[in-house]
Amino acid sequence: MARRTKEEAAATRDSILDAAEKLFVEQGVSRTTLQHIATEAGVTRGAIYWHFDDKGALFNAMMERATLPLEGELQMLDRSESADPLDDLRNYLLAVLRRTVEDPGARRVFEIATLKVEFVDEMDPVRQRRQHNINNWMSRAERRIRLAAEKGLIDPAIDVHVTALSMWILIDGLIHSWMFDQAAFDLIRQGECVIDPYLNGLRARLPG
Looking at the predicted structure, is the pLDDT value of residue 108 above 60? Predict the structure, then answer.
């Protein structure tokens, strides 16, 4: 009986998180109340408070159970160690775009975290998580760019930090633009049209 009760509690928790995710996408975080979430999930507000201290704790739990596209593909980048570090970065960036398009759950949470929330008060952990993602990207990208310079694939005098930050802005901006209107363009194809010229431009700057 205890096992069943534990499983039922976990199922109720998941249904609350599912309802919150749905409503946050539809009407934003600030306009969604705990009562809205309780009604959508078919539970009482008391059931929500049994699992979560407040809306901020609920929101953070929803974020923690999701793997965002930029996070999910970092393991692939860590495992990649080809002869061309720029190719590794290209494969990572395109994998992020594919995951954004093909993984509805990751896409929904990414949309909430970037377009549907204000980074204030109890939502500040979302801002912190975003900063953590940027830092993770920067450390990995800077390492690959340095390797490319050491291998003679790009100008050794290149500003590694600026180059890595430019790549982040490029991929982050692409995803944000696509999120506003997913019918406006093919994210993966457009990504190739932006990423490839950028990387080729780095290679073209080799000193003569």
Answer: yes
- CA pair distance 143, 149, nearest whole angstrom: 10
Q: Rounded to the nearest 10 degrees, how much is the dihedral formed by the CA atoms of 135, 141, 144, 149?
A: -110
Superfamily of domain 2-64: Homeodomain-like (1.10.10.60)
| 179 closest CA partner among 190, 169, 187 | 187
pLDDT at 1: 40
Task: Give the dihedral of Cα atoms 175, 178, 180, 181; nearest 10 deg.
Answer: -170
- Give the per-residue pLDDT at 136: 85
| Amino acid letter, 199 | L
The CATH architecture one would assign to domain 69-204 is Orthogonal Bundle (1.10)
